Amino acid sequence: MEKMYLLWGVLALLMSAEARPNIIIIMADDMGWGDIGVNWPQTVDTPTIDQLAQQGLRLTDFHAGASVCTPSRAALLTGRLGLRTGVTKNFGADALGGIPSNETTVAEILQAAGYRTAMLGKWHLGTRKGHHPLDKGFQSYLGVPYSLDMGCADPPGANIPACPACPEDNSVYRFVSAPESCYMGTALPLYQDKTVSHQPVELAQLTTMYAEFAKNFIQNASSSAPYFLYAALSHMHVPLAQAEKYSNVTGRGEYADTLREMDGLVESILSAVGDSVNNTLIWFTSDNGPWQVKCGLAGSVGPYLGMWQASDQGGGGGSVAKMTVWEAGHRVPSILYWPGHIQAGRVSGALTSALDIVPTLTALGEGNLPSDRQFDGTDMTPIITGSSETIRNVLYHPNSGVGESGVIGAVRIDNYKVVYYSGGVPDCSGGAGPEQNLTDTPLVFDVGSDDSESSPLDKTSSEYQQIVELATQYLLDLQHNISTDNTSSVDYQSGEQGRVCCDQDSPICRCPWD
Ligand SMILES: *[C@@H]1O[C@H](CO)[C@@H](O)[C@H](O)[C@H]1NC(C)=O
Ligand SMILES: *[C@@H]1O[C@H](CO)[C@@H](O)[C@H](O)[C@H]1NC(C)=O
Ligand SMILES: *[C@@H]1O[C@H](CO)[C@@H](O)[C@H](O)[C@H]1NC(C)=O
Ligand SMILES: *[C@@H]1O[C@H](CO)[C@@H](O)[C@H](O)[C@H]1NC(C)=O
Ligand SMILES: *[C@@H]1O[C@H](CO)[C@@H](O)[C@H](O)[C@H]1NC(C)=O
Ligand SMILES: *[C@@H]1O[C@H](CO)[C@@H](O)[C@H](O)[C@H]1NC(C)=O
Ligand SMILES: *[C@@H]1O[C@H](CO)[C@@H](O)[C@H](O)[C@H]1NC(C)=O
User: Fold this and answer.
1) Which residues belong to the signal peptide in this entry (predicted)?
2) Contacts of 382 (CB under 8 A, 6+ apart)
3) Residue 390: CATH number of its domain
């Protein structure tokens, strides 16, 4: 009898260990749908990521929660749209605020469920007290807390236009909060937990440090508790820079070299996981599509050409990717690798979103979603196990860059996409097309058959009218839902107290690199 109990005990233990995988989210920055070989065969620089897809699940209709960094990351970590969290646009380098304390991150949920948690890389949700990764569920952190172009570095890395290295001279210090400016008053910092350990960071060493941190964290994992690692890579955001080993490794330019280095970093993480792969879910994705104004230093949109926007008869040109509601802005790579649990080589066209990450990881980690708020994501476990082909048929894409930030700029209903805003975002030529509010007569595309969004439905057709009416109703429902929900507000002010600074006496906040 006792033996029986023991056997059941051991079995239960094995099963519960099975039920709670280690979880690694790898999130690339500004990486296009076409930047991985399995999505777009012209791309040959991602052998490791391709292998994850060949041995795992590839989602082909997966969308970021917004099409710029900050709101996309907030949506991923909270499972809620910016209209609820208040996080609708990017924070500046010297932001006073950050992700609201009332919003709960997936790291907080998993930590409460017994996970060990760590984060590396780009946070971009605030650095001050209450808003730092260590205040939002991560037990350790290493990273540049925002985009690589939000502070100077020496050497500066590749950007368009080229930015100079950090000034040495006190006279050039300016307090600037515009994130697009080459000259921030603050050199690019590297945090180790809550301490700024290096400033400016050496871009070429960043990848090695990130790989080391991931390896230490993973290998230090005890068998008694599963872990959660959020690896928010600095790749592929400008300025581009690589370790010596990857410099001109492809002979096809900075972008290809940097992509190779990123793939190498994914390989380092995978090899640190080693024999525990079968108990570790690795989920690779990107925060938004390519930043097209960066020309050859921007990634590939794959087939998502946004032809209506690009044409003179339509939107009059400009970007169709990052900052827009066109497919290349928010449709991003998404690969789930978990041998023994996910059937190798599966491809799913289910309509899915980074908003689904919170409910999915909460289910896998046996955590609890806060009960005092609504979520925009859905548990994706049925897609992962293959027990279902769909989890939703409606998805909202917020404006990020044109129109009012956070306002819903497009609605997906099955394969139909209703587009309410266009234009206003520059591409490589510098042209942007006029910013247009199309709300009164939106465009409707069938993105199931028209990847490049070239042929809107005829506005006089009954098909068009039905879809637009349906979308209007969904938007009203969402508005009602949000108006009865607990929502948060965000302080978007910048100020000198928000400046991340190693040495307040140094005009550009330098501290020694050692
Ligand atoms: C390793 O894990 C222990 C206990 O879980 C923790 O105290 C320590 O800080 C960890 N070390 C690293 C390098 O993560
Ligand atoms: C990069 O490598 C190619 C050959 O692979 C070579 O022709 C080219 O000169 C190299 N460029 C630089 C900047 O070293
Ligand atoms: C992981 O699972 C797969 C499929 O069940 C198996 O072939 C492989 O040997 C396992 N790997 C390890 C390291 O246990
Ligand atoms: C809003 O939050 C309060 C406090 O946590 C809670 O009592 C209330 O039920 C929440 N409302 C909704 C709609 O979830
Ligand atoms: C776009 O137009 C609609 C309808 O005319 C209007 O209600 C809405 O406020 C406008 N949106 C913005 C961001 O101005
Ligand atoms: C709000 O939306 C969520 C997610 O779709 C749903 O579960 C909830 O019932 C809705 N609540 C209200 C009050 O409409
Ligand atoms: C946080 O939530 C509480 C109660 O749910 C609410 O009273 C408060 O206004 C919220 N704070 C912010 C900054 O949204």
Assistant:
1) 1-19
2) 388, 391
3) 3.40.720.10
